[in-house]
Amino acid sequence: MRKLWGGRFEGATDELIERLNNSISFDSRMWRQDIHGSIAHADMLGDTGIVSREEADTLISGLKSLESDIDAGTLLLPMDAEDVHTAVEGLLRERLGAVAGKLHTARSRNDQVATDVRLYLRDAIDGIAPELKALQAALLKLAEGEFDTILPGCTHLQHAQPVVLAHHLLAYFWMLDRDRERLADLRHRVNRSPLGAGALAGTGFPINRKQTAAALGFEQVLENSLDAVADRDFAVEFMAFASILAMHISRLAEEIILWNTPEFRFVTLDDAVTTGSSIMPQKKNPDVAELARGKTGRVFGGLTALLTLMKGLPLAYNKDMQEDKEPLFDAIDTLGLLLPAMKKTIETASFNRARMLQSLRGDFSTATDLADHLVRVGYTFRDAHDIVGQIVRTCIEQGIGLEDLTPESLAACEPRLAASAAEAVKALTVESSVASRTSQGGTAPTAVRAQWLLAQDRLNA
Ligand code: ARG
């Protein structure tokens, strides 16, 4: 396909250099955004009299026919073109002849590519947001049945205090909620129009940037033409969003992988989200969760790639910036797979509640409750901590758990407890431990129900 810039060259581009230079293999996916940008531009050219109304209408109907033919599969993009902009303009020239050459008046590929990427990313964001919300909804639904399921809450991956499963699942809901908030926020900065910045300095033609911005659904026009063609902050921001989200998904995935081990046996995964081994007939591996954890690397890598790409660039457009697309597209594709895959994993997971409860036996995870009891009967927390530490040691020596203590054996351990031993023993059950933590955001089933309702409101807002 003919280049958009052959005039001042005598020789042909080296074939190897062409392969290095061309971006059609990855930017072809922006063909629709490229056509939409061109339609808005052509219409504005007609309205401002830069081209005649008739010419503008010819350009617009030509562009629309390209869109419907590409959609129908009856027209293919020429993959030997330099980039998507060259390809679309070339197709238009084949269809309309010389008038197609008027489309690029008062425009450069520099503002055009920035426009296309912003439009493409905006569409991608609008696809990702509902997938993210659907994953949150799956967590919320799962949590609804688990207000009374108790499992060990961990710090340092050591049993710390008992928590209810709904509480644990909702923690992920809120992580994803911040991601959704971030996405909605950055969308405003993606959704600004560089179109009309020209190559870098603006144009002498009487263009109307507000018109093209409005036609394309942009919220505002970028104020500075140099910045408009040189800025990729919006892509970096998206990659930062994607990285944080991938990190959250990876943490959830890791927890699923761990809980699915024979040592934990907290969760059983559906056949639909697991795979087998070619040699070990018994295997059922949590591949979806593992890939979710593994794919985090390429998303983080993409963020680093974009930051590194931009950090040394002088104003305005530099060809380096062609390298912005592959990491961005890869992150979009990765999230497009991971979000529904994790949703399926979550939706089809079944919890082993008895096993969760059983794992709390003998784990001393209600030691803090005993210390809190001592505080209530008059000890300072430091003394209480000390006394309970000694009780735990005695239990370990005797090979029993806190739940095995009777009022008598507790009083024998610590004579000062004699008066309230019966009450203290009651505080040692995991049920009363979780029920007692009624502080806002705490693990008491009543508090978790209140939190669940807040989460539901948040999702429906
Ligand atoms: N393929 C290019 C890119 O992705 C389009 C812009 C080219 N501009 C130029 N002046 N060569 O950045």
Order of helices and strands: HHHHHHEEHEHEHHEHHHEHHHHHHH
> What is the straight-line distance between the termini?
50 Å
User: What is the number of helices?
Assistant: 20
Q: Count the E strands.
A: 6
Largest beta sheet: strand ordering: 1-2
What's the shape?
elongated
Average residue pLDDT: 96
- CATH level 1 class label of the largest domain: Mainly Alpha
CATH topology of the largest domain: Fumarase C, Chain A, domain 2
Looking at the overall shape, the CATH architecture of the largest domain is Up-down Bundle
- What is the share of helical residues? 55-70%
Ligand identities: arginine
Q: State Rg.
A: 31 Å
What ranges have pLDDT less than 50 throughout 5 or more consecutive residues?
A: none
Structural class: mainly alpha
Mind explaining what this structure looks like?
The chain has 461 residues and is mainly α. It has 3 domains: 6-105, Fumarase/aspartase (N-terminal domain) (Fumarase C, Chain B, domain 1, Orthogonal Bundle); 110-146 and 156-358, Fumarase C, Chain A, domain 2 (Up-down Bundle); 367-460, Ribonucleotide Reductase Protein R1, domain 1 (Orthogonal Bundle), CATH 1.10.40. 61% of the residues lie in helices and 5% in strands. The protein contains 20 helices and 6 strands. Strands 1-2 form a two-stranded antiparallel sheet. Strands 3-4 form a two-stranded parallel ribbon. Strands 5-6 form a two-stranded antiparallel ribbon. Helix 10 (233-259) packs antiparallel against helix 12 (296-311). The longest helix is centred in the first third of the chain and has 36 residues, at 109-144. It is elongated. 39% of the residues are buried. The mean pLDDT is 96. The structure holds arginine (ARG). Residues 23, 27, 83, 109-110, 113, 317, 319, 321-322 line the site of arginine. The site of arginine has 10 residues, from helix 6.
